[in-house]
Amino acid sequence: MIFYLLIGITDFLDGFIARKYNVESVKGAKLDSIGDFFFYIILSAYLIIEHKEVIFTFLIPILLIFIFRFGNIAIGFIKYKKLIMIHTFANKLTGLLLFILPIMIILGVKEFLFIVVIVALLSPIEELIILLRSPKEKIDLNKRSIFIN
């Protein structure tokens, strides 16, 4: 649990420090997205192995989330010829909620998964809208929301 908390804190801090000291880079954002992707894979494996009874309750919405996420990656790759992961507020909120999820399940607050599933289902839908509305020439990977220009 200590390593898990350290991973989450450092993931948050690296982006915060980069923005604060104006040392953001495209490469850093891509590395962050790749790290997040592996984190989600490992977290998914952990939740399926250790808490399958809770996870299988929401199996269909979780599968839809994965379909949307991988669909967005495919659409981004087809449209822009590179891996696209947009850093929206909803995606960041999803990441935070997913990070908190195992702690809440261990504490017995299994209803928290419902909130996570709703937010995690809405965020790739927003990302899909951004992908489809963005010009083919360029996409803003730091687009915060469909509601903010």
List keywords for this structure.
single chain; globular; 149 residues; mainly alpha
Topology:
Elements: H1 2-20, H2 26-50, H3 52-55, H4 59-80, H5 89-106, H6 112-133
Describe this structure in words.
The chain has helices at 2-20, 26-50, 52-55, 59-80, 89-106, 112-133. The protein has 149 residues and is mainly alpha-helical. Helix 2 runs parallel beside helix 5 (89-106), helix 4 (59-80) runs parallel beside helix 6 (112-133) and helix 5 (89-106) packs antiparallel against helix 6 (112-133). The radius of gyration is 16 Å and the shape is globular.
Rg calculated over all Cα atoms: 16 Å
Structural class: mainly alpha
In terms of quaternary structure, what is this?
single chain
Q: So how many helices?
A: 6
Q: Strand-and-helix sequence, N→C?
A: HHHHHH
Amount of beta strand:
under 5%
**What is the number of strand segments?**
0
Uncertain residue ranges: none
Instruction: Describe the sheet with the most strands.
Output: none
Span between N and C termini? 39 Å
Shape: globular
Residues in helix, %? over 70%
Global mean pLDDT: 89
